[in-house]
Amino acid sequence: MKVKLNEEIKEYCNILKLKGIKTHFEEVISEAADYEDFLHKLLTYEMEEKDKRSIECRIRNAHLPYRQYIEDIEIDCLPVDMQKRLPELATLDFIEKGKNIIMTGNPGTGKTMVSIALALKACMAGYKVLFTTIPLLVTTLKESNSAKTLRYFENRFEKYDLVVADELGYTSFDREGTDLLFNNLSLRAARKSTIITSNLSFERWIGVFGDPTVTSAMIDRLTYKAILVDMEGDSYRLRETLRENGASIKSLTA
């Protein structure tokens, strides 16, 4: 009789999607001191399971290219400025304050990797996150504009707690793309956080946007109360590989 009852409980848990209770109720039966303790333990397991599902959902919806944990980053392989700033950035206080982060520097120094790590931590902390590239974002904006669904996209875009817009500088844009990008990043300015990565210094952004007035306005809007991180340095992957092999950058050029 008890076996049948337990099987029915498991079946009901499947139907109600109560994975935490299904997994632990038999264990809790033998441990609980009274009915209240029994119920509390079951609900605790269910809440933990719900939190796990919510985290996985946020990570999936963020469209991260891969999972990178801050704890796995070799901090001393990063550029000096990021080495100093990463512990503070990892608190995610910049999201609470609606601050942007602008990382500029030569390719391969860890800009994308650090951005993904911060985005992943934000997902795990309960924030709504989107990872995209600047070229993909501009393409999406132009397609939404053509399909007359731009306002719907803008409503969603401005509500993300954190947007990572990677790879500014790899392609240039026409006036429509530039205006759409400026308008949508402006919607988030001083309210929601955006991380921008670029392999170009600010004075070279005019090559991306073309018009000096628009470029100046874009820089002014994005950098207002922003955290600027200098990512000039040696390749992160190369430094990590050399470190594992007991070598250094200098040994390659000696």
UniProtKB/TrEMBL annotation:
The keyword ATP-binding applies. One of its GO terms (molecular function) is ATP binding. Keywords: ATP-binding, Nucleotide-binding. It comes from the Bacteria. One of its GO terms (biological process) is DNA replication. It holds the Pfam family IstB_IS21. Residues 16-241 form the IstB-like ATP-binding domain. PANTHER family: ATP-BINDING PROTEIN RV3427C IN INSERTION SEQUENCE-RELATED, CHROMOSOMAL REPLICATION INITIATOR PROTEIN DNAA. This is AAA family ATPase. It comes from Acidilutibacter cellobiosedens.
